[in-house]
Amino acid sequence: MGRVQGKVAFITGAGRGQGRSHAVRLAEEGADIIAVDLCEDLETIGYPMATPEDLEETKNLVEKTGQRIVTAKADVREVAQLRSALEAGLAEFGKVDVVVAQAGVAGMKGQPPMQAWTDGINTNLIGTINAIQVALPHLTEGASIIATASAAALMDAHNKPNPGGDPGGMGYMVSKRMISEYVHYLATEIAVRGMRANVIHPTNCNTDMLQSEPMYRSFRPDLEKPTRADAEPVFGVQQAMKVNYVEPEDISNAVLWLASDESRYVTGMQLRVDAGGYLKWYDYHV
């Protein structure tokens, strides 16, 4: 028996990166998957989004585990599209037990700047809320909701040396911080119903979002056109452990634990998978 044998997981942003990794990891442990992704580029985001071919590859990888999968092209910003995708999965599997709200974009250095703010907020925050709330009517006792925020949500943002200089970058941090608060209060309301909700905060994760020109520029603002070789050594500034980034599988293992009954009494938690990054920023407090 797998650790999530017989469960059905609804995963957004599943075309590649962390979302694909979560889909495959949960399938390896016995879950069937409802996988959605936008599969289109956003003009304000300075790196390519997943493609329809990427989502098809996620399907292939899940099916290789022996589990079933339903995929759909859907925009998390649009409730109707998400609801239609989930209903297609429900028609196939008859239920949903786990929600993994993974879809997200990083709009730093995006142009035009305020549209980059809007696209980040709408995808990361509103998209997470949409994914969870279309699923809520179908969740029953024992269900687990998992939202992806970021170590950026936990950083002290009071020091703003250049207000308005990068709305897309600030929108990323704000969206992730607000996801954390939303899930905290949601967890309180659903606890009495035997359901759980938790947030995972990854540090730098080795995906297309991190390995992108806008991210390189964010870490190396001293260079006009920094490369991966220029930026990667600086990625380590965010972690206490001696790593520049973690891998998607490191986050997927946390997702698996929160999806499984092993964590049946764990709810309302802000789970940091940050290689000790938080330890660098804050003193101990309860």
Automatic annotation (TrEMBL):
<dbReference type="GO" id="GO:0016616">
    <property type="term" value="F:oxidoreductase activity, acting on the CH-OH group of donors, NAD or NADP as acceptor"/>
</dbReference>
<comment type="similarity">
    <text>Belongs to the short-chain dehydrogenases/reductases (SDR) family.</text>
</comment>
<keyword id="KW-0560">Oxidoreductase</keyword>
<dbReference type="InterPro" id="IPR023985">
    <property type="entry name" value="SDR_subfam_1"/>
</dbReference>
<dbReference type="InterPro" id="IPR002347">
    <property type="entry name" value="SDR_fam"/>
</dbReference>
<dbReference type="Pfam" id="PF13561">
    <property type="entry name" value="adh_short_C2"/>
</dbReference>
<dbReference type="InterPro" id="IPR036291">
    <property type="entry name" value="NAD(P)-bd_dom_sf"/>
</dbReference>
<protein>
    <submittedName>
        <fullName>Short-chain dehydrogenase/reductase SDR</fullName>
        <ecNumber>1.1.1.-</ecNumber>
    </submittedName>
</protein>
<keyword id="KW-0520">NAD</keyword>
